[in-house]
Amino acid sequence: MANSASGDSVVDRVVRVIAAFPEGVAVLQLSELAERAGLPLSSAHRLVRQLAEHGFLDLGAGGNVRLGMRLWELVNRNSPTLALRQAAMPFMEDIQQVLSRNVNLAVLDGWEALFVERLSRRGSVANRARVAGRMPVHISSAGLALMANQPRDVQAEYLGQFSDPGGKVTAGVVRQLLAETAQQGYAQLAGVVDPDTWSIAVPVVDGKRRTVAALGVVLPLAETRPQALVPALQTAARGIGRQLDKLREG
């Protein structure tokens, strides 16, 4: 692809334009979009017009730009997590009904837990995990459940580059958390993301013994009863793994 004067390719610039929308913001002014993407206004305008022609962006009156329905359509139709979400939803609904709590489903993406589905229950505690939202492995029970069940070389690479921006957690502490999670078969964290909640998560394993996701719940901090929660979560996680195998085979 042709490069700009700064050396970045057209693909680089397109990615920067699409990724410029922050979480929870549906509309940006063209000038703000250009600034966030690090592009001259004229270049941003040209790219936005071209992407709008294909339905990936919508360019409205007054220079308002929003993500297009075509982008949403392609992502949801071809997402690698589509089968996982289909397999997991009935079990997540069961868990929500039985435990009356928020339920999350996450996958490992780099050194972060990427949440691909969640069910929130009215009247329950705040659920900080959002669909398409991310959390660092070390502050998420889902992240710990995922990383604790990765191959040793993946864990070693993760711990080797680990740094906590807040300077409160060391690689040694995370190593201990991963070891405890692997030994217990589940991860739990209290008051980390939200001081009034705690979370627990278990790995979802497919027929090839690969940890493909983590299933978790969020509860009030005062409600600490893993002995009652873990068996229900593990049963659901096994069901998700079996259903995922069936969807892949079919």
UniProtKB/TrEMBL annotation:
Organism this protein belongs to: Arthrobacter cavernae
SMART domains (alphabetical): HTH_ICLR (SM00346)
Keyword match DNA damage: no
Domain IclR-ED intervals: 70-246
Superkingdom of this protein's organism: Bacteria
Listed name of the protein: IclR family transcriptional regulator
GO BP: negative regulation of DNA-templated transcription
Gene3D superfamilies associated with the record: 3.30.450.40, Winged helix-like DNA-binding domain superfamily/Winged helix DNA-binding domain
GO molecular function, one term: DNA binding
Record-annotated HTH iclR-type domain positions: 8-69
Zinc-finger is among the record's keywords: no
Keywords on record: DNA-binding, Transcription, Transcription regulation
